[in-house]
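re the bet — no i am not wrong, look at it urself. input seq straight from the record:
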Amino acid sequence: MNPRLLTLTSALLFSTGGAAIKATTLTSWQVGGFRSLVAALTIAVILPGSRRNWTWRTLLVGLFYGLCLVSFVLATKNTTSANAIFLQGTAPIYLVILGPWLLGEKNRSADWATLALILVGMAGIFWQSSASQRLAPDPALGNFYGAFSGVAWAATVCGLRWLGRSGGAGRETDPMSPVLAGNLIAFALCAPMLFPVQAFPVADVLAIFYLGTIQIGVAYWLLTKAIQRLSALEASLLIMLEPALNPLWTWLLHDELPSSMALAGGGLIVGATFMKSWQSRNNMLE
């Protein structure tokens, strides 16, 4: 299949996470834990290379990814899907700060412009927090978890870059190993809060199975197939379909409406990230 179509399909699957998480009656910790357990089993089966040659670096990067997975579920369960995905999208803010410190990467003037725009968008989301809704009972707490997931995702990206370098053991481990490790760690983090399960309706079982196997497992499998024939920058641009569609599915399926300020702030975050990715692509072509 066309690698661009594979990437867009993976982004489409990723984007359904918010609506599927909100469709469950389980607690945030239960959704996060069971989803990651199913995802880990799925990845281990369909991507056998992810099970091999782990190092302490694999576990370290997996820890950051596990924190990202758990905090995103906690955010989605407490605030709107739009706020959760947009706040996770603030990761470039922290990459501008962490890149030079951890990876020795130099920032360009465009990076600081991107940071400023994302900060404005982030402020818009926090400034006019959405009112409590049936599926977004505590927007302030959810927004906090969403912002934390952005920090954790930025740390994950830095870790993946570190692993990809010759000195970072990139030749020893499969690129999907931190994803498998992260899901196992996410399950371990949630394990103390998993029981007792008061009820486990069939709808919840189906939702957890979908989230673990399709929304994470199959989506990552498609992305790994596509990334072999696409540049990382082009893939990053195509994958931005996820934050654009995530709030749409939640609105269509659950009638959840974020505030106008949150939508404006989220649009600014997505737009700034898109421009940053496009600028990086042009710089590499020069």
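see?? Residues 166-170 have pLDDT under 50 and may be disordered. told u. also The CA atoms of residues 124 and 187 lie 33 Å apart. so pay up
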